[in-house]
Amino acid sequence: MTPDPFSAKVPDAGSAMVPVLAERWSPRGFDPSHVMDEPTLACLLEAAQWSPSASNSQPWRFLVTVRGTPEFDAVVRSLAGANQVWAPHASCLIVACRVMSDDRGGLLRWSAYDLGQAVACLTVQAESLGLSVHQMGGFSVEAIHEDFDLGASVEPLVVVAVGRFDPDADLPEDLRERESAPRDRRALSEIVVDGREALRS
C-alpha cells in the first residue's frame, strides 16, 4: 500500500486532544466539483454566531460568497497572487471582518480576538462535517472595501476558504511540497510560561 503523503499532518496521538482538533490542518488542494449547500453553510455560520465574545458584543461580520458567483470572483481578485492559484477551487470564500466600534462610537477593544474565536469555531465545525478550511491574510483590504459596502467601522481581517479537500488537486510543485510537508509546532516548553517562575516577588 502506498503511504499516505498527508499522514504527517496528524500529530502524534500521545495527547488527549479530540480528533477534530488533532486532524485539522489547512490544505490548499480543494475539490472544484464540491458545491456548498445552504444547510451546511448555515451550520458553519451558526458555529461562528454562537462563539463567545466580550460582553456578548458579537463584533464580527461575515461576507459570504460561493463559487460561481460574481461576488466570489471579486473576493478572488482581492487575493495575493499565490492565493489566487488555488483559492478559486474552494466551495466558498468568507471574508471575516471585525467591527471596530459600537453604536456609540466606543472602541471594541477585543473585537479582533473575538473574531478569531468565531472563525476557530467555524473551522472546527467544518472539520467535523468533513470539510477543510484555509485562512488567508494575503488579500487587499482596500479591494474588498471598493467592491463591497461593509461600512466604515468594519475591518476585513482574513479570507476563509472552505471546501472539500482533494488530495489529488493540481497544484504547482512548490505548493504541492508544502501540502504534504509535516506539520510542526513549537514545544510547549517554548510557549508556556510557568506563573510560579515568572511571578515577581
Protein model, in words:
Helices cover 36% and strands 15% of the residues. The protein has 201 residues and is of the alpha+beta class. The chain has one domain (25-169): NADH Oxidase (3-Layer(aba) Sandwich). The longest helix is centred in the middle third of the chain and has 18 residues, at 111-128. The model has no long low-confidence stretch (mean pLDDT 93).
In short:
The chain is an alpha+beta fold and 201 residues long. The chain has 9 helices and 4 strands; from the N terminus they run H-H-E-H-H-E-H-E-H-E-H-H-H. Helix 2 packs across helix 5 and helix 3 runs antiparallel to helix 6.
Structural class, judged by helices and strands? alpha+beta
Count of DSSP E strands? 4
CATH-scheme architecture: 3-Layer(aba) Sandwich
Describe the biggest sheet? 4 strands, antiparallel
Low-pLDDT windows of residues: none
Mean pLDDT: 93
CATH topology: NADH Oxidase
Instruction: Give the overall form.
Output: globular
**What sequence of helices (H) and strands (E) makes up the elements?**
HHEHHEHEHEHHH
Beta-strand residue percentage: 5-15%
The helix content, as a percent range, equals 25-40%
Counting DSSP H or I runs of 4 or more residues, the number of helices is: 9
Number of domains: 1
